[in-house]
Predict the structure.
Amino acid sequence: ASSYNNLGGIYDNKDEYDKVIEYYEKSLKIKLSELGHNDISVTTSYNNLGIFYLNKSEYNKANEYLEKSLNIYLNKFEHDDIAVAVSYNCLGFVYENKAKTIFETK
């Protein structure tokens, strides 16, 4: 799973976006089947996919993955933990950008 995740990052740096999704999703699939849906390791894959989609302006997909990550963090950590704060921050970027697209079309 870690190798697939690393490959996703490499392809992201090379702007080969189809491969980014392919490898991040392979990593996620392995983690989900081996560790379960609530394991903290799954958050790395959710975050990577969420941030990837945020950067591609696909805000609904970004929101979906980042919220899954946040929910795991909230079940594992205190609400003032840095991981929780970072998740809220990423979701804030999603909401900010969604709002910009709404107001720019008016």
